[in-house]
Design a protein that fits this description.
- The chain has about 140 residues and is α/β, with parallel strands linked by helices.
- It has a single domain (about 1-135), classed as 3-Layer(aba) Sandwich (Rossmann fold), CATH 3.40.50.
- It has 4 helices and 5 strands.
- Strands 2-3-1-4-5 form a 5-stranded mixed beta sheet, sandwiched between helices.
- The longest helix is centred in the middle third of the chain and has 20 residues, at about 40-60.
Length: about 140
């Protein structure tokens, strides 16, 4: 799981314009995960793995981006294994928490609608195991 999270962070920085979000010397990533509902163990293990990764990276001085290191900050929000909650969580992570990117939701039934919110807000979202092709459907915003 730590390897998946490390790879996910690398992808996020490959596809995201890193600018004013890094002015604080902290990179804030949101997690839209099921801490309650049908699959709480998935959310718990996601959070546990992310915390191990964050401790490793921050313990080494932070994540190297160019010639600078940035500490990681993770924000965890419970989507209750529900589509409507996943949408609300995505919006909250973007609007209130000002995250650079979002990891999750995991399940397709939450990832597809949450992805629409992320598309509208031009925020990177990575779903670790959603299998619905609509999860990766590219939306054009004009």
């Amino acid at each position: 799981m730590k390897k998946i999270l490390t790879l996910t962070l690398a992808l996020i920085f490959s596809f995201t314009m890193i600018g004013s979000s890094l002015a604080t010397e902290t990179i804030k990533i949101g997690f839209n995960i099921p801490l309650t509902g049908e699959i709480p163990k998935v959310g718990e293990s996601s959070k546990f793995s992310a915390e191990m990764l964050k401790a490793d990276i921050n313990g080494q001085g932070g994540l190297q981006v160019g010639d600078k290191k940035y500490k990681l900050e993770f924000v965890y929000e419970d989507n209750e294994s529900k589509a409507e909650s996943a949408v609300a969580v995505a919006q909250k992570l973007i609007d209130r928490n000002k995250v650079l990117a979002i990891i999750g939701p995991n399940s397709s039934k939450q990832a597809v609608p949450a992805g629409e919110i992320c598309d509208l807000n031009e925020t990177v979202m990575v779903s670790p195991w959603s299998t619905n092709p609509d999860t990766t459907l590219v939306q054009c915003i004009i």
